[in-house]
């Protein structure tokens, strides 16, 4: 199979067809129509074998994951996902692998009503680059720079599960089989909080998705908003798997520093707090309030059992951290 045979077999004509796509796969560029009074949100991520995913990851899970992490960026901006481009670099053409990989990709694309409109295929070490696009009403996009003094800090779900899955695979942590299945699912098949992100528009003052770790990503909000944050570590939600596997002090690096959870971290003015909680519950999201924005310029204070906790806020960063 050659390049264009691969494209025609696994991408062209597969998946949903959106009415706002004027020209999809097959030409030099795709053509789309952006609705009036909307802005185009664009994000690009590259996932590399051995850095962002394990070499032995199931191809179906990888197809899901590469789209999910990009849709999570759109969710953090409050955008509705619409179109994606896929650049796929493969060491060789494995028909069985490609069938599973593209099936995983098309499944999540169809679930979120996203059309794959183009991309590229090349030969080389396995890596996938996704350029995801979405639309957001003009002036309504959520940003990292909007947090204000007195705003409450929330997270949409439990933290640390992906890190637990990573360390279980690397170090062989003793995790009960049912909990191991759960954390592996959380890592391999992350769920982008797309609906929650759109609910946040008009209620939240800032937002980011947790890809590099709670403290690292919160650091982006407080730095760009020029405020401080106070976090009650006791209020950070954790899963049954986390609580059954590790003692509380052992959980700290997982819930504070590990990334790949792809929950949304956001701030809310006190006047919007109750209404937003109610709206999110309607979408099955039981968000947890974990702290508050304070005056200052970029510091994060951690409180545990009423005492101040000194902790390194470094999260994942390329060129400085060990890969998966």
From TrEMBL:
Domain spans labelled PurM-like N-terminal: 26-136
Lineage top rank: taxon: Bacteria
Record key words, sorted: ATP-binding, Kinase, Magnesium, Metal-binding, Nucleotide-binding, Thiamine biosynthesis, Transferase
Chain residues that bind Mg(2+) 2: 45, 73
Catalysis performed (reactions): thiamine phosphate + ATP = thiamine diphosphate + ADP
Annotated Mg(2+) 3 binding sites: 28, 73, 209
GO biological process, one term: thiamine diphosphate biosynthetic process
Note in the entry: Reaction mechanism of ThiL seems to utilize a direct, inline transfer of the gamma-phosphate of ATP to TMP rather than a phosphorylated enzyme intermediate.
Role: Catalyzes the ATP-dependent phosphorylation of thiamine-monophosphate (TMP) to form thiamine-pyrophosphate (TPP), the active form of vitamin B1.
Protein name: Thiamine-monophosphate kinase
Provenance organism: Pseudoalteromonas porphyrae
């Amino acid at each position: 199979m050659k390049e264009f045979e691969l494209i025609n077999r696994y991408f062209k004509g597969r998946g949903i067809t959106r009415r706002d796509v004027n020209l999809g796969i097959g030409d030099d560029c795709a053509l789309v129509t952006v609705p009036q009074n909307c802005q185009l949100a664009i994000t690009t991520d590259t996932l590399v074998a051995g850095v962002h995913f394990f070499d032995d990851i199931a191809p179906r899970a990888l197809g899901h994951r590469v789209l999910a992490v990009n849709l999570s960026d759109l969710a953090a901006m409050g955008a509705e996902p619409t179109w994606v481009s896929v650049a796929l670099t493969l060491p060789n053409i494995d028909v069985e692998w490609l069938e599973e990989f593209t099936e995983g990709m098309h499944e999540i694309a169809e679930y979120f009503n996203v059309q794959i409109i183009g991309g590229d295929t090349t030969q080389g070490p396995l890596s996938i680059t996704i350029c995801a696009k979405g639309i957001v009403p003009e002036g309504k996009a959520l940003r990292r720079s909007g947090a204000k003094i007195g705003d409450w800090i929330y997270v949409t779900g439990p933290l640390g599960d992906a890190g637990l899955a990573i360390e279980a695979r690397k170090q062989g942590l003793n995790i009960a089989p049912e909990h191991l299945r759960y954390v592996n699912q959380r890592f391999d098949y992350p769920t982008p909080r797309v609906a929650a992100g759109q609910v946040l528009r008009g209620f939240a003052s800032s937002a980011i998705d947790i890809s590099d770790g709670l403290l690292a990503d919160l650091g982006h909000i407080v730095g760009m908003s020029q405020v401080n944050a106070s976090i009650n570590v006791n209020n950070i939600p954790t899963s049954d798997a986390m609580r059954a596997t590790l003692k509380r002090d052992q959980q700290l690096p997982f819930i504070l520093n590990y990334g790949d959870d792809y929950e949304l971290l956001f701030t809310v003015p006190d006047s919007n707090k109750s209404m937003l909680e109610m709206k999110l519950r309607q979408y099955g999201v039981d968000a947890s309030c974990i702290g508050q924005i304070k005056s200052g310029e970029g510091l994060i204070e951690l409180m545990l059992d009423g005492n101040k906790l000194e902790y390194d806020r470094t999260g994942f960063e390329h060129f400085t951290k060990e890969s998966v």
